[in-house]
Amino acid sequence: MRKLLIGAVVSALALLLPTPAQAAAIRPVTGFGSNPGALQMFEYVPDGLPSGRPAVVVLHGCTQDAAGYARGSGWIGLADSLRFKLVLPQQVSVNNFNKCFNWFQSADIKRGSGEAESIAQMARHAAGSRTYVTGLSAGGAMTSVMLAAYPELFAGGGVVAGLPYGCATSMIDAYSCMNPGKDLTPKQWGDKVRAASTGARSPVSVWHGTADYTVAPANLRELAEQWTDVGAAVDTHAIDGMGHGQPIAPRAGCGVAGAYLLDVGVCAAGELATKWRLGENGVQ
After folding, report:
1. CA of 143: how far to CAs of 60, 77, 137, 150, 192, in Å?
2. What is the rounded CA–CA span in Å between residue 90 and residue 59?
3. Has residue 26 got a pLDDT over 50?
4. Would the pTM of this model clear 0.85, i.e. be above it?
5. Does residue 134 form part of some domain?
6. Which domain holds residue 226?
7. Number of domains in the chain
8. Cβ atoms within 10 A of the Cβ of 56, count?
9. Strand, helix or coil at 174?
10. Which residues are catalytic?
11. Residue 188 within a domain
């Protein structure tokens, strides 16, 4: 596990790649599918974006909204500089009072059902040349859901302060998953993913603060064990002394500090963009 300081890399890429003269807008999208999970869809498409560019599904955390997390985490700036689109699902309070994605409700985490299917429909509607998924906290847990239930849709995933797939099946159970966490064998974790779907598994990056008292750091280990057991390439990043949130680096042009958007001099979004080669043409 490494602490990655990549602001210089992000800044260098931004200098080399075109930036729109006028920033595009985050806009709502309707009619993307049957939407069984009753989520809202937003998207961010940089001005003049050519066809055939990648897409990233970005899943906010509890109490956040799609636009605030997309900006605060640094994904908007990266989409502008590296030229890719963002798919921004948003939870509504009718589904969850704290606007958390329901990663712990069995009806919302199965293939073809609930919130998971709504997010899959958004990803299909966006139709990037290759599509990735990432999210924070409940959004990180929902990233695990999407990678488990829809492996064919995503070329890679980034779980930030999240949880393994299938850790909980009720709200009460969710709290014990969050802290202290559940210690299962790699095979037990892997069996949960295999029960969700079959198919090849894409690479997974796992990010967690060592001082996270909301979602225990032990979940980083359990996530790595789960995805390694099903054959995914896994890289893990433990950020020394960081609490619960998204690691950002505003002084390097990555993100805006705020609640659960933590200025630790590390840009998780930028590192994921580099890993996924989002500034390049063609298939990874």
Report:
1. 10, 21, 9, 10, 15
2. 7
3. yes
4. yes
5. yes
6. 7-275
7. 1
8. 30
9. helix
10. 137
11. yes
